[in-house]
Write a structure and sequence with these properties.
The chain has 80 residues and is of the alpha+beta class. The chain has one domain. It has three helices and three strands; from the N terminus they run E-H-H-E-E-H. Strands 1-2-3 form a three-stranded antiparallel β-sheet, covered by helices on one side. Helix 1 crosses helix 2. 19% of the residues are buried.
Length: 80
């Protein structure tokens, strides 16, 4: 069973891993250490601010996420 809950700062790595699985389907680039750090920082900020939700299996594994990062925040990403 999957449940929806507010993301916690401890979820940042798992959220990043979910995004990496679908990166070819969303308008975000993760190539390069600078972009990876920026994305991780944005994920963490959304988690700390309570603006991110995660879908978690009963085991606790994160299998999805939703946050401002999913839409408008990605539009502000660096293009270079």
């Amino acid at each position: 069973m999957v449940s929806i809950r507010c993301a916690k700062p401890a979820d940042v790595q798992a959220i990043y891993a979910v995004l990496e699985e679908i990166v070819s389907e969303i308008p975000v680039r993760t190539d390069g250490a600078d972009r990876q750090r920026l994305l991780s920082t944005r994920i963490e900020r959304c988690c700390v601010a309570g603006h991110s939700l995660v879908a978690a299996e009963a085991s606790g594994a994160i299998v999805g996420q939703a946050s401002p990062l999913s839409a408008a925040a990605l539009a502000a990403r660096p293009s270079a």
